[in-house]
Automatic annotation (TrEMBL):
Domain (Peptidase S9 prolyl oligopeptidase catalytic): residue spans on this chain: 404-610
Listed name of the protein: Peptidase
Stored InterPro entries: 6-blade_b-propeller_TolB-like, AB_hydrolase_fold, Peptidase_S9_cat, WD40, Xaa-Pro_dipeptidyl-ppase/CocE
An individual GO BP term: proteolysis
Lineage, highest ranks first: Bacteria, Bacillati, Bacillota, Clostridia, Eubacteriales
PANTHER family to which the protein is assigned, alphabetical: PEPTIDASE S9 PROLYL OLIGOPEPTIDASE (PTHR43056), PEPTIDASE S9 PROLYL OLIGOPEPTIDASE CATALYTIC DOMAIN-CONTAINING PROTEIN (PTHR43056:SF5)
Length: 627
């Protein structure tokens, strides 16, 4: 079964004695569990069922736990409260029951015996307000004291080691944090209240990521003011560059709890950055700005935590899935703590990614990873190019990575080539590449997916007559646009996809409620453009069949998006199949769901492309599709 034994590794934390992480377990209904590896190597679950260590702030969550001493503080995804878990004790609530309040990005202010967190409050009319609050650990306060307010969103609250200053990233609608955000610093009184507040960095064309205080109370952060997310320091009220690379030390902050660097000492940083889509690991002397690159076996690195010479991260490579990885910076040794996927495949069957750059519209270069079909038990006929699955990542401000994924290997072991496309708008290639999509969503992304297909065809890596496209969320929109407005692909499969842009803009959740202002244009002035780009209004041109999946619990993209698409296709007599899942949300997590989807998708492509399958799979009925 495709995902039965997998877990999703989401966050890590490092103390002097233990390693902690969160793993989402599909076999436990997608419950997120905090796991601890103790000094003696014993691994234990730190929270019992049914507690679920996850946040729902911004709907995508993250930043769901922190540790102080041996006490774990976590957000519960079920009721939204913060709990404390002392060793050998059941979890105890820190915040009161309140269905309209959620928390994320927890840190501990040990001196004042309180938590600092981002709080999200929804009133009875559905209006949402965010603030950075202080919550007493010992005595419950119904709401907590507000430390930062006045902005639409906050992220990365960071307390200086001496407890005198608090940094935070803030931004306002209609911007997203990777477009425009600000770094604010408050001076705190002895009682913890805010004494003075100032803006340190940021602006309309600048994105701030991950402020951190060094052990000697100096502030560092990541900014893309040069077009690339680089490291900076703030000393003597002056912003100074620490790195100046054409590389990315930052990420799109879809979730809380992200981290790319930490302090080995007051004068040395250990960091990861992305260059041409691949991760690098580096030690930086902050005084001299000298960098020393480390031999690193991983192609993707995230959630970096540093405590002296001990480093913890989530990392993966082309032959190995994402894993919790520890690194001894003194001896320069890596160790796998926990892998997300058991290595159940024979190495002879694993298809490795080939990094490709290919020409696209207006003389631009786009990026992606090609996976050739590979199965030791089957050989393709001589001179025949394989059918192609083009994969389009979500976001759309996100990226695909060259890391072992069972999803991709599922297709390559069954005779398909796969092209994982980092279309214009993807992260990891600098701000100008990210900004290619601004105002052009549904155009640039589709152009790049088609350009990738043409490139592969010209190099005999894929058969363009047997190319299909698939995507989730925003990637599903691109897939639909590709078959609604172009004729390159023989079929499209979507997961929780967008079909009506204006309807999404008016109905989506608070965090993304103005996201499309930048990707398309603000409403109502761009109403005609929204309709022009929405596949659901242009289905008369569609000739390729569509298979659509959607989770009924999706709070990001309402199921009405898929329902409207399927209804319209059915009425027009066009080929369409659909399956909805009552217990699934925006990201499917149940093993049975994933197995059902992939079998149905395989059967769908086999039918459309006239491929004979050596295995029996359960198909989905495709309406209006000739046998």
């Amino acid at each position: 079964m495709l995902r039965a034994q997998t877990v999703s590794l989401q966050e890590v934390f490092l103390t002097a004695s233990s390693i902690y992480w969160i793993e989402e377990r599909p076999e436990d209904g997608g419950r997120c569990v905090i796991v601890e590896r103790r000094p003696n190597g014993v691994i234990v679950d730190r929270i019992p069922a049914p507690y679920d260590a996850s946040s729902r702030v911004h709907e995508y969550g993250g930043g769901a736990f922190t540790v102080s001493g041996e006490t774990v503080f976590f957000c519960d995804g079920g009721d939204g409260r913060i709990y404390r878990q002392d060793p050998g004790q059941p979890p105890r609530p820190v915040t009161p029951a309140d269905a309209l309040t959620r928390y994320a990005d927890l840190i501990v202010d040990t001196t004042r015996e309180r938590l600092i967190a981002v709080r999200e409050v929804r009133d009875a009319n559905g209006l949402i307000e965010h603030a950075v609050v202080a919550i007493p650990i010992v005595e419950r306060d119904p709401m907590g004291e507000i430390l930062f307010g006045g902005h639409d969103f906050f992220m990365f609250p960071r307390l200086s080691p001496d407890g005198t200053r608090l940094a935070v990233v803030a931004w306002d609608q209609p911007h997203m944090p990777w477009d425009s955000s600000y770094l604010l610093v408050a001076t705190l009184r002895d009682d913890g209240g805010v004494n003075a507040l100032q803006s340190v960095a940021g602006g309309e064309q600048e994105s701030i990521f991950q402020p951190e205080w060094s052990p000697d109370n100096q502030l560092y952060f990541v900014s893309d003011r040069t077009g690339w997310w680089n490291l900076y320091s703030w000393q003597d009220r002056e912003v100074r560059p620490v790195t100046a690379l054409h590389a990315e030390f930052g990420e799109a902050a879809w979730t809380f709890g992200l981290s790319t660097y930490g302090f080995v000492s007051a004068t040395e940083i250990l960091a990861s950055y992305t260059f041409s889509g691949l991760a690098r690991l580096v030690r930086i002397n902050v005084a001299t700005r000298e960098m020393s690159h480390l031999a690193c076996p991983f192609s993707t690195i995230s959630h970096v935590k540093v405590l002296g010479d001990h480093v913890l991260m989530i990392a993966g490579a082309d032959r190995s899935p994402k894993a919790i990885v520890s690194y001894d910076a003194d001896h320069r040794q890596f160790a796998i703590v926990r892998t997300s996927v058991p290595l159940i495949m024979d190495e002879d069957d694993v298809s490795l990614p080939e990094s490709l750059e290919f020409p696209t519209t207006d003389g631009t270069i786009a990026f992606g990873y090609y996976y050739a079909p590979k199965n030791r038990d089957y050989i393709a006929p001589e001179g025949e190019s394989p059918p192609l699955v083009v994969m389009v990542h979500g976001g759309p401000t996100d990226r695909c990575e060259p890391v072992f994924q069972l999803d991709i290997q599922y297709w390559t072991t069954r005779g398909f080539a796969v092209m994982d496309v980092n279309y214009g708008g993807s992260t990891g290639y600098g701000r100008p590449y990210r900004d290619r999509l601004r105002g052009h969503w549904g155009i640039v992304d589709v152009d790049d997916a088609i350009a990738a297909t043409i490139f592969l065809s010209r190099h005999n890596k894929a058969d363009p007559r047997r190319a299909v496209i698939r995507g989730t969320g925003a990637g599903g929109f691109t897939a639909l646009a590709a078959v609604a407005f172009r004729n390159t692909f023989r079929a499209a499969t979507t997961y929780n996809a967008i079909s009506d842009l204006a309807a999404l803009a008016r109905a989506t959740h608070h965090f993304e409620s103005h996201y499309l202002d930048g990707l398309i244009g603000p409403l109502p002035s761009h109403e005609a453009l929204y309709q022009e780009r929405s596949p659901v209004f242009h289905l008369d041109r569609l000739r390729a069949p569509v298979l659509a999946f959607h989770g009924l619990q999706d709070r990001v993209i309402p199921v009405s998006q898929t329902q409207a698409l399927v209804e319209s296709l059915t009425q027009k007599g066009l080929p369409v199949g659909t399956v909805t899942f009552a217990e699934e949300g925006h990201e499917f997590s149940h093993p049975d769901t994933m197995a059902r989807c992939y079998e149905a998708e395989l059967a769908f492509y086999a039918k459309v492309l006239n491929i004979r399958l050596p295995e029996r799979v359960e198909a989905v009925s495709i309406q209006n599709c000739p046998e």
